[in-house]
Amino acid sequence: MPEFIPGIKKIKYEGPDSRNVLAFRHYNADEIIMGKKMKDHLRFAVAYWHTLRGSGADPFGSQTMCRPWDDGSDSIANAERRLRANFEFLQKLGVEYYCFHDRDIAPEGKTLPQSNKNLGAIVKIARQLQNNTGIKLLWGTANLFSHPRYMCGASTNPDAHVFAYAAAQVKKAMEVTLELGGENYVFWGGREGYQTLLNTDMKRELDHLARFLSMAHNYKKEIGFKGALLIEPKPKEPMRHQYDFDAATVIGFLKGHGLDKGFKLNIEANHATLAGHTFEHDLQTASDAGMLGSIDANTGDLLLGWDTDQFPMDIKSCTLAMLVVLNQGGIGAGGLNFDAKVRRESITIEDLFTAHIGGMDAFALGLKNAARIITEGSLKKMVKDRYQSWESGIGAAIESGKASFVELEKWALAHGEPTPRSGNQEKFESMLNSRII
Amino acid sequence: MPEFIPGIKKIKYEGPDSRNVLAFRHYNADEIIMGKKMKDHLRFAVAYWHTLRGSGADPFGSQTMCRPWDDGSDSIANAERRLRANFEFLQKLGVEYYCFHDRDIAPEGKTLPQSNKNLGAIVKIARQLQNNTGIKLLWGTANLFSHPRYMCGASTNPDAHVFAYAAAQVKKAMEVTLELGGENYVFWGGREGYQTLLNTDMKRELDHLARFLSMAHNYKKEIGFKGALLIEPKPKEPMRHQYDFDAATVIGFLKGHGLDKGFKLNIEANHATLAGHTFEHDLQTASDAGMLGSIDANTGDLLLGWDTDQFPMDIKSCTLAMLVVLNQGGIGAGGLNFDAKVRRESITIEDLFTAHIGGMDAFALGLKNAARIITEGSLKKMVKDRYQSWESGIGAAIESGKASFVELEKWALAHGEPTPRSGNQEKFESMLNSRII
Amino acid sequence: MPEFIPGIKKIKYEGPDSRNVLAFRHYNADEIIMGKKMKDHLRFAVAYWHTLRGSGADPFGSQTMCRPWDDGSDSIANAERRLRANFEFLQKLGVEYYCFHDRDIAPEGKTLPQSNKNLGAIVKIARQLQNNTGIKLLWGTANLFSHPRYMCGASTNPDAHVFAYAAAQVKKAMEVTLELGGENYVFWGGREGYQTLLNTDMKRELDHLARFLSMAHNYKKEIGFKGALLIEPKPKEPMRHQYDFDAATVIGFLKGHGLDKGFKLNIEANHATLAGHTFEHDLQTASDAGMLGSIDANTGDLLLGWDTDQFPMDIKSCTLAMLVVLNQGGIGAGGLNFDAKVRRESITIEDLFTAHIGGMDAFALGLKNAARIITEGSLKKMVKDRYQSWESGIGAAIESGKASFVELEKWALAHGEPTPRSGNQEKFESMLNSRII
Amino acid sequence: MPEFIPGIKKIKYEGPDSRNVLAFRHYNADEIIMGKKMKDHLRFAVAYWHTLRGSGADPFGSQTMCRPWDDGSDSIANAERRLRANFEFLQKLGVEYYCFHDRDIAPEGKTLPQSNKNLGAIVKIARQLQNNTGIKLLWGTANLFSHPRYMCGASTNPDAHVFAYAAAQVKKAMEVTLELGGENYVFWGGREGYQTLLNTDMKRELDHLARFLSMAHNYKKEIGFKGALLIEPKPKEPMRHQYDFDAATVIGFLKGHGLDKGFKLNIEANHATLAGHTFEHDLQTASDAGMLGSIDANTGDLLLGWDTDQFPMDIKSCTLAMLVVLNQGGIGAGGLNFDAKVRRESITIEDLFTAHIGGMDAFALGLKNAARIITEGSLKKMVKDRYQSWESGIGAAIESGKASFVELEKWALAHGEPTPRSGNQEKFESMLNSRII
Fold first, then answer.
1. CA distance to B377, C112, D65, per residue, from B382 (Å)
2. CATH class of this structure's domain A12-376
């Protein structure tokens, strides 16, 4: 096997004072944080579509990045070279997981059987490379949005033929994920939504979506796939409205269709912010429902209105995200997948490394900060103090379901005006700052 | 009873060619549209808080509007004058409904008993005025956001004391709504949300919110209130995050807590757009769930990021809203409440009339357009055609639950690539334009 | 010459009651409005890049539209077929102008001389087709954003080599525009901006931009090009920040560099709204500076944060735009260029027609409405009345420069508190509605 | 003089490891950074309107904060108590500057002479307190937006009477600022803009604005005020459109009216972000024009659409801001004014301290980071390297004005395709992170 990235050696941890952009300053894979190795807390994954298939093309311009191993063709041989480069990249980066869409790793054929055959061929090699390297598949998924057949949706397409085609494609993608030992399977409904309500029967489309997910869940059991099925919310783009708008919408939809036991959520930072939420809000919403399954670790530009999928570089945001994760006892079989792409102008392979290292360091520092905050405990205690009135007396009566409006009126009349108490927001913010390095 | 608005007589319908801004050009109350009077389709209501209590104050400046009947005091006498002016305004405008918060119509006292007493005194007069004029209460509600005690929420306050106080206040407001024959009772959670997650236990607060709504529902049955309980979504403002974010979030929350049978939604245009949705999207979402109970008819400025509560003046938007209403068989016991305020600079009483007339005409024209579109049927037929594949064959099999991934794969392999079909968005848009006058 | 679009005949005017989506309901080219033919008021143009080169590809998916005449190759023969199809499309649509980027009409070669040769070959044919059909070039421009060489800007690129290359390309594009009798030449700075300030010397880049425009202006005089040079503002996308942010920014930049006499503006609706302005605001800003040269007639979705380039379908917006145009005495040698693309799902040629017809009808109706409003005069009179205090007395003294703070203080002390006067916004809005059909 | 804030002593510097929220962790006033004391770099100021006059009221609710020294009345005695509390607060906080609007410090009277008299009385006390404490006035300004007379603008009001009144008010405010040794005078055009273009003559209003500023500049010279006149941009709120939209708009406006020599800018973080810019973008834009005069140091919530005026707590943002300041050689006679308010729920006086301390620490750390980055020099060097092609050869020829399109075409033909070079955004971001503590 030739070396695809000859100029760069395995990235090492050099500590916070290092000025080497090709070294970790905070991510120290085997360092123990709250009783667990950093790598087991963070479970980083590389996103195949961006890192191996990203070309720098955007709606206003063509490809800017040409990788030496990629001849631009749709051949199996080219697909294999990309795959091998992927494993080399991950080994050098020190990341143990990757994620892919079916069509990222193997070319779509002229027919479904041909596509399946292509996929099968590549999966065989992937399996071997996984065995050789110890690199694992965090999750697989099917691309149901790039091909023109899906232009009006996959499971929510007005044409039942497309629904059936999508079902066949997901079936295969689930099989492949199982075959590669994937720990989860993700649904991002790239075109599940509408461009205009004028031509859309929204209720019917949503019923079809539920039907599709139900079949997927059945098929998971049928083939013995033990991983989680994850839905990834996004509010808009490419469709004007996407049905899986945000965490709350998806949770409500799943509950409304009796599907909440079978699915969890994969929360992406940039998708949350496009919906008007902070990253930590959508993480907390999913976590509170017991449905935070995995994370797409990226960031957007909050002053722009589209998904920029940038590498996470904000320490405070990473700290808040890791607080949610640690508070729920870890991300389980999920992980932090870098659904992030280098900017169109960052055309070198070194940029690919720099970007991932920067993101890994940001989350590593976030993890350390979050662990410090939890261990120290003062912020949590301040929150607990705010809610102390619920631990006994009328608060406890309300929570236990023993109070009614009539009783509460009596109580309120007897106790008069409540005493105002400061929310202390700036104190919380300032304390957070003092615990972030 | 003195005349409060001596300069303006009852507003008349003068037809589309009228240039009189104090006449209706489209709203002709008794005109029959699709078998029903316009007034019974539209069920317009005036919002007491804006129209009778709006002062023109904003975060950057003080009161600009001084009504001759309002001495600015918190006296019962002043409250009565406002109430009488309200009925005169509605009679002259030809609107049959109004809506209020408890604290709009009667001053808050120093204690809850005093507040209740004030409210009782005014309600007695309101009842009499309703009887005299035939004007009715579309819905009542409690203001749980203006008083400092509610600064950190009412039912989601960290202090159980505030929850109890809010319960007592809502109890009274529900009684008063019943007493006045109110056809609905609304919950807008003005401060039910958070300013920062740092100091917030979101899960606990949401559980308290569900508990509160459950008590309200029980109390409704206890006192024999037959109207609907309506929740009004809003995504943000005043709180950074409001729990009743949008229609989908509220529906999901209600279903998740087993409350969906007891509540419907009151959808406001400007709240929907602040959440990133079109007005018609949130109406359709509520309607599809069988939960569209009433409408707050206003509009926002889509290029601004706060709730401007402007009077609806966009004919296309009103048409699309009325299409949802007509398609679900009418708004039932709900109505179109003008939760809209004249601009701070529109300081005359004539402005109040002009604004309401403009909004009523916009919705009247929207109603006529929607009726025309439905009667003509071509747009609906085009939508139906898009989904024809679901009426038989594999589509019907999927919808009836008879298909699985395995069967769909077989079918897809047998049938090959779907035939692409245009979404025809511009055709739909153009046809809509040709049916709007 | 074979017929490229055999199924569709020349689009006719059938009047407002027509239900034929392949006919005009409002656009009646030779109808006289305020003393001028509609076609001479509106001067519609088709945008070559969207209509002839649009493929339906977006960041999440590949081409959906396959025109029968387009084999997808970069050959001159294919370019010629597209060009011929363009002229047939315009003839059938009844539009007299088109606009292009150099690289839209002819393929980029491996070298600049090859690209210039390709362009020359196609321009020769275009000239002939223009002569045969009477169709004219509203404006030409150079594409300085799609090729990877321009990824960090053209005239604002950190590399002077790219600046020089861009200069050579614009030089040729200006020559070609002159050769084809183009009535204007446009600069849209697709990549003139930055992605991050961290790696950017903004001041230096802006100075280079001014230098570039100055050279263009010199070259215009050198070759005897009589048309206007137009700058098209856009605030963001593809770059995070675009230097030509909005009309006010561009006007200020031009004035600051002494270039305002040599340039006008091409205002695009969707670009204005991305900057947080209404379409009419940026039109008025340019018009007030005497710099409104031409218009990109499209619309965006105000609830989305990217440039959707939709066909204009909102009658009120078109009315307000045409009011600005009529109030400044017409668009001059500019026009209304449909910088709009059919949705990715609108894959038929009929969709191309329907979309343009819908947009033309919207602006035709907007023109008629604007003419009616101006002829009737009441809205203008109401505005004039608001400012009457400036026509004499202290107002006139201020405007003529005769007053100072000292004198105004004296006057203010003598005259006391001003009398508040309503802004009557809802009255204006309602009157506007009554004058829009 | 009684002590107004008995519970809190002078805030001390305790160093980064302190867990005391009533101590500085980073702000060490006399510590030398790059040859200058921190306090002289930062020149912090307290905003009187928020800190002394903020009540917690918002559009949805009434006052939440009651200071013990403030009886809520409009009396001079109350105004004096507030003023004395202000000086005590600043002394305890260790801040040397404050800023005010005329109406913040003294009550508006029934007439202008009465208002002026009230102001004069308070200014006399302020002067004495300044002398006693060494606390200085960073800038003064006039409130031309709160009183109803200004509802449609001050200098851009349709009524010339209001213009004259505003002139008289600003005249007095400038005199008072001079009297108190104010180092700058600020114009924030709170209502200088429009709510709807329909009722507005924008060109005329902008001409009036220029006239007003010109008079102010003349009056400054007349009275011998040596400080800078500063304009503070804001894009919207309270008006739908504000004329001083952003830095670029204001600079262009000033240049277009020949006023750019007489004015500088006061850039506010939250105003920049409401305009779609980063804080550092608007700072850099002003600085590049030589017009960055002072800073309103706050932050907004980028996911909300209104001015939240929060205390700055983001270290990266403060670092980038201080980079602009240090790179231009300091803020001069300007400063960092905390135009920030504690949240409505932060009702204690301790919250006022915590918030200011948090903001001061954030900017102190930002200053240290910026100094470290500049001293180390590697980021600046990387930027310089990107632009090296402009230092000689064709780049230098272009910059010196010696090149034309004809020459550049020759050069480009001779030199062929430019070599692509990475923008390295992630490397820049990662290096920045490694230099921020």
1. 9, 50, 59
2. alpha beta
Question: Catalytic annotation on C101?
Answer: yes
Cβ distance of A354 and D278 shorter than 8 Å: no
> D80 is written with which tokens?
């004096």
The angle formed by the CA atoms of residues A301, A304 and A307, to the nearest 5 degrees, is 70
Q: Are C348 and B422 in contact (CB under 8 A)?
A: yes
Does B278 contact chain C (CB < 8 Å)?
A: yes
Distances in whole angstroms, Cα of residue C22 to Cα of each of A374, B373, C25: 67, 19, 10
A343-373: per-residue pLDDT in tens?
999 999 999 999 999 999 999 999 999 999 9
User: Quick check: B191 and D151 CB within 8 A?
Assistant: no
C343 in Cβ contact with B427 (< 8 Å): no
Q: From the list A61, A238, A274, which residue is nearest C238 (CB)?
A: A61
How far, in Å, CA of A195 to CA of A191, rounded?
Answer: 9
pTM surpassing 0.90?
yes
Torsion angle of C-alpha atoms C160, C164, C169, C170, degrees rounded to 10: 90
Q: CA-to-CA distance for D206 and D189, rounded, in angstroms? A: 12
> Which residues are CB-contacts of C219 (< 8 A; sequence separation ≥ 6)?
C171, C174, D404, D405, D406
Beta-carbon separation of A151 and C56 below 8 A: yes
Size of interface C-D (CB pairs under 8 A): 272
**Residue ranges of domains in chain D:** 12-376, 380-434
Cα angle A121, A127, A133; round to 5:
135
CA distance B225 to chain A (A): 15
D274 Cα distance to chain centroid? 14
Distance between CA atoms of C118 and C102, rounded to whole angstroms? 10
Structural contact between residues A298 and A310, judged by C-beta atoms closer than 8 angstroms: yes
Restricting to B residues 110-129, those with a Cβ less than 8 Å away from any Cβ of C are: none
How many residues does this entry show for chain C?
437
pLDDT in tens, A62-100: 999 999 999 999 999 999 999 999 999 999 999 999 999
Q: Kindly state the DSSP code that residue C236 receives in the 8-state scheme.
A: S
Q: Which residues contact B232 (CB under 8 A, 6 or more apart)?
A: B186, B187, B188, B189, B244, B265, B266, B267, B268, B271, B296
Dihedral sign for Cα atoms in the order C194, C200, C202, C205: negative
CB C219 within 8 A of CB C163: no
**Is the Cβ of A345 closer than 8 Å to some Cβ of chain C?**
yes
Residue A227, token pair as written in the block: 């991983």
> Using CB atoms, which residue from C148, C190, C195 is nearest to A62?
C148
Strands B228-231 and B184-187: parallel
- Residues recorded for chain A: 437
Instruction: Write out the catalytic residue numbers of D.
Output: 101
Residue D430 has its nearest CB partner, among A276, A313, A423, at A313
For the record, the structure tokens of B59 come out as 């975060």
Look up residue C310 and give its DSSP letter: B
- Contacts of D429 by beta carbon, 8 Å cutoff, 6+ apart: A311, A313, A358, C196, C198
Per-residue pLDDT band at A1 (split at 50, 70, 90): low
Closest CA to B384 of C348, A156, A200: A200
B49 closest CA partner among B104, B118, B86 = B104
What are the pLDDT digits (tens) for B78-90? 999 999 999 999 9
Hey, which residues of A are catalytic here?
101
User: How far is Cα D292 from Cα B394, in angstroms, rounded to an integer?
Assistant: 68
Q: Residues 6 or more apart from B388 whose CB is under 8 A from it?
A: none
What is the C-alpha to C-alpha distance for residues A115 and A278, in angstroms, rounded to an integer? 39
H or E element, residue C296: strand C292-296
Say what angle helices C405-415 and D160-179 make with each other, to 10 degrees: 120
DSSP label of A388: G
**Torsion region of A298: left, alpha or beta (phi above 0 gives left; psi -120 to 50 gives alpha):** beta
- Contact, A185 vs A229, CB < 8 A? yes
